[in-house]
Amino acid sequence: MQFDYAALVMVMILATLVVIILIKLIYRHNPHYSELYGGEIVLFHRAERYKRRVWRFNLIEELKNQKTKGKIIGELELKVICGEFSDGKREIIKHAAYHKFGSITIISGPKVFSEDKMEIYTLLDQYKNVEYLILPRRPTNHFMIFNKDHLYIEKPHRHNDSRGSVGVKQAQLELINKYDEAFSKMMEYARPLTKEEVFQQECH
Amino acid sequence: MDVNTIISGFLVLSVAGSSLSIAAYSSFKDRASDDQKLLLIIATCFIFAFLVAFILSFTTLENLTFYQYLLALIFFVLIFMAVLSIIGFVIHRLMVDQKYKDDELKSAIVIIESSKDDLDSSISLFESEKQF
Questions:
Q1: Helix, strand, coil percentages for chain B (3-state, nearest 5)
Q2: ipTM of the complex in this document
Q3: Where are the domains of chain A?
Q4: pTM of the full predicted structure?
Q5: Less packed terminus of chain B by CB within 10 Å, N or C?
Q6: Range of B60's domain?
Q7: Which residue of B has its CA nearest to A174?
């Protein structure tokens, strides 16, 4: 039987189409979804420090872009409850402050690592939209609320330990409200820290 | 052109392709990534290509004695079983990866739930400390 080049070209075009569809299907955005919790749920393992950081950085940039396009009206908000003002938190908060978040509120435990004092001072000195509050004891539940829409929740851990965490984009209203209320209540028990008081904070 | 001359080339190419894809799949450290899934699908394509070339090679057999026919048939069945096993392996891996993804979601929900439950007790602790 003679080889038909037209058939070969047809097969090649068909194969190319199949490959394009296959790649689109495989690499399609397919996040974990749960009706009860949120649209995009990501689990970060203990060792995935970089992945955690990038996820929050991207979220901040995404929110800023939405605000620039006029999809978000009003100020961008970031609420953080943490045990200590650690390296990772500092990067996220600075990134948010740099990306024009209008209000950043941090609630932290009473002790800091001595090397972080200067960082807290600089943050409070440079950004007037950052508020830093101190609780009488170290909180066990650490989380971040990004603009009343997205959540980042850490698994309870000791101050010198790191554990897994979860990021929830487009979190369900009920879940966000629960964390938002908890944040507001925690604020009642916390006292604001001025930049002058930073160097008097207790150290670990 | 004699079809027998290209069959051996097809066979080697498809076996090498599927082996390389599976080796590349195994070298990934991340579990359940999309790249791994693509490699498994590439391996499946190579394996099916091998199967086609293999069946083609058997359709070109001529003038066999009974024993030659019998041995060729046994060989065919064995290779066919091996190929089916590789396809089974690919399907199994895809299912395991999907299960891993589902387990991740469950773990994430456990973290959310436990954190949510602890919120109230943390607040009541601060409240009781404030009262004293």
A1: 90, 0, 10
A2: 0.76
A3: 31-203
A4: 0.73
A5: C
A6: 3-131
A7: B116
